[in-house]
Design a protein that fits this description.
Radius of gyration: 22 Å
Largest sheet: 11 strands, mixed
Number of domains: 2
Distance between the termini: 43 Å
CATH topology of the largest domain: D-Maltodextrin-Binding Protein, domain 2
CATH class of the largest domain: Alpha Beta
Shape: globular
Helix content: 25-40%
Length: about 425
């Protein structure tokens, strides 16, 4: 196994639109270059934690030992998506690369990925929302999820009990949770927030859908204004911030992150991803907490899913080897990867083998994989979410009303979409 750290900024000068790189092609097409006696495939990844780096290298080594195929790991340290786009534009893509669900529709639509629908075994074993994140409108599969994260409700039990409540008092629905935070705030010490929140659309897409609004219409446009239920949901965040009982850690508390605020005993409740667990254990070992499912919204279970998959370049010269690698990493080798990296497996059978649902700390996160909403929704989601984030910020700042902010976000996103079409 070789490991290369590539600084690919020069390639960005060669970047063009992905659509120029080719059209969709089934993995059943002719696979050139796979007749070589000794094969080496390239795997492009981004830099990660020491645990994930070790997990990847050891699992790749197991694959190499089993198959005799060498894997050259290329760690891209610059903007990953721009670098991969540049590699495709230069007609020099990696054989296999990490693909975020958020940008998957753009890569799929451009026709540069290999259709691997018929190559991956036992697809029913995957948590279906994860697998669906990498399919096109016709149900063809272009990447296989390697791991994921979900959101859950974290409750600081020490602060809760000090205020006179128990974990059983914490409501499981959004409206109840907001009201509880409002009642809890006066009973907390100065500088402590009842609840903290993230203002980005990435954290709220599942709630928007639960309130009856898909912010990405069937024709790919933005819609932030057609649902009163959705506006009421976001108004509850604006009102909570104004009232001082639902705060943003960066804007309102001067904290670097939600995890830092929670770990420093500055917040009782946060809705956050499982990525905070490592910091809570290592940097804030004295904080005591329980983890509950994300609150229901409009009577519906909801949470966000953030997932990354392995994708194969359509023009790879080593398609068979690349497919074999992806099958191994998301099949036979997935438990080794998950155990070493500390990430969640995307196959239900592996989660069961690891007994993750029996872990009270992880249970809410794991269960969310079966009903959550992946952070992906068409090729224009990056445009739509950027407009939302900018204008929701203005509403939180008090510069404009929420309705005016959402109308401005909708208009801005749709104007940019029309410009790009």
């Amino acid at each position: 196994m070789k490991k290369t750290i590539g600084l690919l900024m020069a390639l960005l000068l060669l970047a063009g639109v992905l659509s120029a790189c080719g059209s969709k092609e089934s993995s059943g097409d002719k696979k050139s270059g796979d007749g070589d006696k000794k094969q080496t495939i390239s795997l492009a990844v981004w830099g990660s934690s020491p645990a994930e780096t070790e997990g990847l290298e050891k699992t790749v080594a197991s694959f190499e030992k089993k198959t005799g195929i060498d894997v050259n790991i290329e760690v891209i340290t610059d903007n990953f998506q721009d670098a991969i786009t540049a590699r495709f534009a230069a007609k020099n893509p990696p054989d296999v690369f990490y693909l975020e669900a958020f940008v998957a529709p753009k890569f799929i639509d451009s026709g540069v990925l290999l259709d691997i629908s018929g190559e991956i075994e036992n697809q029913d074993d995957f948590y279906q929302p994860l697998l669906n994140a990498f399919k096109d409108k016709d149900g063809k599969l272009y990447a296989v999820p390697k791991d994921y994260s979900t959101l859950a409700t974290y409750v600081n039990t020490d602060l809760l009990e000090k205020a006179g409540y128990s974990i059983e008092d914490v409501p499981s629905d959004w409206e109840g949770l907001v009201q509880f935070a409002k009642e809890l705030q006066p009973k907390l010490d100065e500088g402590v927030a009842a609840m903290i929140f993230d203002k980005s659309m990435a954290r709220h897409l599942s709630a928007m859908l639960a309130t009856g609004l898909n912010p990405v219409t069937e024709d790919g446009k933005a819609d932030f204004t057609s649902s009163e239920n959705t506006l009421e949901y976001f108004q509850s965040l604006v009102d909570g911030q104004d009232g001082g009982y639902i705060l943003n850690p960066q804007m309102d508390m001067g904290m670097d992150s939600a995890g830092a605020a929670f770990g420093s005993n500055k917040a009782v409740i946060m809705i956050e991803g499982n990525w905070v667990l490592s910091a809570l254990k290592n940097e804030y070992p004295d904080v005591h907490y329980k983890i509950l499912p994300s609150p229901t919204v409009n009577g519906k279970k909801q949470t966000m899913i953030f997932t990354v998959g392995y994708a194969i370049a359509k023009d790879s010269k080593h398609k068979d080897a690349a497919i074999e690698f992806v099958k191994y990493m998301t099949g036979e080798g997935q438990q080794q990867w998950s155990e070493l990296s500390g990430t969640f497996p995307t196959r239900q059978s592996v989660a069961e083998a690891m007994k993750l649902a029996e872990n009270e700390e992880l249970k809410a996160h794991i269960e969310g994989a079966s009903y959550g909403t992946p952070w992906t929704s068409g090729i224009y989601l990056p445009v739509i979410s950027a407009a939302f984030d900018n204008h929701f910020q203005a509403a939180l700042n008090g510069d404009v009303s929420l309705k005016d902010a959402m109308k401005a976000a909708e208009d801005e996103a749709n104007a940019e979409i029309e410009r790009q079409q």
